[in-house]
Amino acid sequence: MNIRLGILSQKISIRNQIIFLVLIILILPLLFTFYYLDKPLEKAIKAKIGYSAQEALKLAGRNIEYATEEMFAAANEIAQSPRVIQLLQDPEALTPYEKYELQISELNKVSRSNHTSFVAVMDNIGHMTTSRYTEPQVYNEIMRSDWLAHLNTTPNQLLWVFRQTNYTFADKRPTVSLVRLIQEPQTHRKLGVLLYSKSEEDLYSYITGLEGKIYLADSSGTIISSGDKSKLGAALPTQYAVMDLKETSRGQATVGKGAEKKLVNYYGISQTGWTIVQIIPYDTVFKEIFDIRKANLTVSGMILALFVLLTIAIANNISRPLVVMVKKMTGMENNQFNSPITVNGPKEISVLQKTYNQMLGQLKDLLHRVKDEYKQKEEMRFRALQAQINPHFILNTLNNIKWTAYVRGEREVGQMLSSLAGLLEGSIVRGSSMNTLGEEVDYLRNYIVLMKLKFNEKLDIVFNVPEDLLQAETIKFMLQPVVENSIEHGLERLPGKGVIEVKAHQEGGILLLTISDNGIGIGMERLKELQTWLDADELVEENDEAKRIGLRNVHERLRLQYGEGFGLAIDSRPGEGATVTFRLPFLRKKEGQKHAD
């Protein structure tokens, strides 16, 4: 345990340890006490608010019950009226005036309440009498409805039906309808159907004074009345259908979290199976307590902030010298060695600051020596690499052999030696290790002339180098080793004709060269070995001479000349040839210009 605390203290600064200690001793007990005093208060207020909301819902529910009872009584009166039964038994027995008088006296008898929206009496042979004008085709629409089919299977049942539009010609408001069958009193023979409707707005008038969002849902959870008319006919959102989880027909529940937290009150109307659902944002209900809590938190926060500021000030006075020293030492990781520390603070810290200043001076001297040695080493390394492919004595010897061949009449041999000498002459450093892309292409042409003497028409090379790139700067003898590898390892064992393609283009200041062949390709293991080889930070061992003079040598020269972001990349698939990509900066080399490091 002590070891863990020791490791933890090493990772936390002295300043933060002091602040953390104050937080534990002062702030956390205060927050703990505030939390356990505040929760009981919120619970008590919630209970009182819930009781008040339930009483309001109860009153609204009773009003809706009275309205539905009125609809039930009126529907019974119409269904049992002898004149209505006579109309359904023999529609042709009544004159148009008698039908009109029946409509006024029977169907509109409850219009005194100003709540009746629509009453319709229909027989089974196509006749319909309504309290308001209705289009004749409405009869067929009603007869095809699902609710009527359900009613025919349960003739003694009363159905409550919600509809988005009324059946009347002009009044298209949503309605809630009571539907029942009309039967003969003696035989109980089915004579017709009674549709008794109220406007949804009339029902909503009983619940419109309640706070929050109010929904009246039927037994299936469909919203049949609401202040938001776009919700009518839709299912009550699942999170608000809390009444399904309760044993009683009324109650309260809290749903959601954070800003979406809601207080849901519900009241069930037993005779219809409807439920009034009231949804109030939690923050609105507890606004007053939240305001008091906010004021308490503000005052407490100001006191705590004052204590924290005082603590930070004390901690800074103690830890400031050490913090400055840590920043200076961290800056040393970014090679910032020119900022000694001003000696101040307590005795122990002053000793550390003096020691740091002495160490800083020694590091600066050591860094200068290391930079000088590294520069000399890289220069010698570059010269050694260049010397591997630029032997002067070979050129002189070839020239002597060439002229001897001409004197003896061996003209073909002389031409071969002349091409080889021209190739080597271009690789010899004469005041600069740089070349142009055009000169590199000429070296390749000389080299291919020599190779064609061996391979005849089996070997061909294609150059796709734009004219404006021929003056681009390159390092000397850069392309030939790669072409030699393509011939030796890719084309020599190829059954057919071997073609090498040299392409060049520049993108965003970068010169990209590719040398592709149609040879036998490289195996996956060998390709991974070559790619690892090119990515290595150090040169290979001296005894691996062939590799050092090939791809790796060119790759190293490019990196030494231009930096780590440049060099070679190789890609291949067995049987599909290989491609080597050169990446170097696009620079134009002028006549007589030497490359400057």
From TrEMBL:
Topological relation to the membrane, as annotated: Multi-pass membrane protein
Keyword Nuclease: no
SMART domains: HAMP, HATPase_c
Record keywords, A-Z: ATP-binding, Cell membrane, Kinase, Membrane, Nucleotide-binding, Phosphoprotein, Transferase, Transmembrane, Transmembrane helix, Two-component regulatory system
Protein's cellular compartments: Cell membrane
Matching InterPro entries: Bact_2-comp_sensor_kinase, dCache_1, HAMP_dom, HATPase_C_sf, HATPase_dom, Sig_transdc_His_kin_internal
Molecular function GO labels: ATP binding; phosphorelay sensor kinase activity
Name of this chain's protein: Histidine kinase
Native source species: Paenibacillus nasutitermitis
Upper lineage: Bacteria, Bacillati, Bacillota, Bacilli, Bacillales
